Amino acid sequence: MPYFSTLLLLAVAHSTSLQTSSSVCEKDCDCQGEFKFTNCSSVLFTHIPSDIPPSTEHLDLSWNRLSRLPAGTFRALRRLRVLLLNDNNISDVAGGVFSPLESLQRLDLSRNRVSSLREGFSLGLGSLKELLLGENQLTCLDGFLHLDSLQRLNLSGNAISSIRPRAFGHMTSLRQLYLQDNRLGSLTNGDFSMLRYLEVLHLQGNRINSTEAGVFAPLTSLALLDLARNRLSAVRFKTFLSIHSYSTHVLLADNPWSCDCDLQRVFGKLRSVQRLFLDDYHNLSCREPDELRGYRLSAVDSELCVAETVTVLIITLTVLITVVAAVVMAEKTRKKQTGKHLCEESSVVYNYQS
Predict the structure, then answer these.
(1) Backbone dihedral region of 51: left (phi > 0), alpha (psi from -120 to 50 degrees) or beta?
(2) Which of 14, 88, 235, 261 has the least C-beta neighbours within 10 A?
């Protein structure tokens, strides 16, 4: 009897434990234990419940009303591999809140109200491969640390206007970086240092009007560079020549190009570089000068240096005519002087004979 009593007590305790750990599943969430998946999406949570099954590996908390992630929130969920927190109202993320999640590989915080990342944001995220922070309110990049395994980082649709030195210094495995639709005004050397394995860089839809010559030099694996929809009126040949990847596709459409002879020469040289592919070259339009506004660069590029060529020819011809005229005048002067000397010599001889 003691044996069966012990078994009964264990069974009751186990049943109670299951009910406790699965209570959130019974009330609000859809839990699929065999897949270790807990779906609490769109149930209007204002805080993360404490009775989520600790065996959960995939937790979906998207489309709720969460506003804060206080310290200790995920203390009992150490097995999480995927955490979806997108489409909430989260503005406050406590430093170290993700520190228990050492197995987490995907974190989605898209479409929240995060304006800054505290210094301890990345603590515990050493296994993270994908971080999605698109459409938040970030203004500056300076808080990414200890994300050595990260391969995909989405920061699109924020208000980022500057990149602090070595902001990506601890992301040596990064493959894809999405920075489109922010407020970046310029790109400087060092912005992308240490990203030697980066393959995709999206910068379209910013306010970029200048790039330093070596800004892309560290990107030795770059396959796609998207600079469309910025404020570039000119580019430097060295800026793109510094990309030493085997093959790089560059997008530059919807920039306010100032179509002149210098621009024609730069694009002419860029198109001759075998490892660079200007995929949308035939869609580039002129903003200046006024007489070329709206014209495709490819339709007028052969004419952009005509005026300069004509000017050079006119100058050359003028110089040539001036030189020829000077030579002719010099020759005439020489002949006159020679004739004068002959006359003077004849006169001297005549007078002597007389």
Answers:
(1) alpha
(2) 14
Supply the DSSP symbol for 296.
Answer: B
Domain that holds residue 156: 15-306
| CA 312 to the chain's CA centroid | 40
DSSP state at residue 41? T
More confident residue, 284 or 326: 284
The span from the CA of 89 to the CA of 2, in Å, is 55
Q: Output the DSSP codes for 110-175.
A: -SS------TTTTTT-TT--EEE--SS---EE----S-TT--EEE-TTS---EE-TTTTTT-TT--
Residues 290 and 215 in one domain: yes
- In this structure, the number of other CB atoms found within 10 A of the CB of residue 288 comes to 13
pTM of the model: 0.81
Q: Specify whether 131 is located in the same domain as 233.
A: yes
Poorest-pLDDT segment among 6-15, 153-162, 226-235: 6-15
In a domain, 353, yes or no: no
Q: How far apart are CA 93 and CA 131, in angstroms?
A: 15
Cα–Cα distance for residue pair 107/150, rounded to 1 Å? 11
Residue 22 lies in a domain: yes
* Rounded Cα–Cα distance for residues 318 and 322 (Å): 6
